[in-house]
Specification:
Blueprint: E1 10-12, E2 19-21, H1 29-57, H2 60-68, H3 83-102
Antiparallel strand pairs: 1-2
Helix pairs in contact: 1-3
């Protein structure tokens, strides 16, 4: 695996052939938390934009996503695990995509 100290330079992701920014710089825990939050925001944006693009061309994608929601679960354990909360987020996500497809 090739590593760089610059966040903007790519790194191969565990040999899977994907190129991702290198997020391995040494950081304090609060910096690491901030970076994780920012990566999550970026991932959600890119995923949502990709799904919107695909749904415009393949409207049946939204039906397939709706049908898959019941298979979702919360992989976390303990008191915070809530499968239905995860499914509800997915339902809202798909509903938002449907609303955008209608406009």
């Amino acid at each position: 695996m090739w590593r760089s100290t610059a966040l903007a330079e790519p790194v191969l992701n565990r040999g899977r052939g994907r190129v991702l920014p290198d997020m391995t710089d040494t950081q304090s825990s609060s910096d690491a938390t901030t970076q994780a939050r920012r990566r999550e925001i970026v991932a959600e944006h890119l995923l949502f934009t990709t799904l919107r693009f695909l749904a415009e061309r393949h409207p049946e994608l939204l039906d397939a996503l709706d049908a898959s929601v019941n298979h979702l679960g919360d992989p976390g354990g303990g008191a915070t695990q809530d499968d239905e909360a995860v499914r509800e987020i997915a339902r809202r996500f798909v509903a938002s995509l449907r609303a955008e497809a209608r406009t």
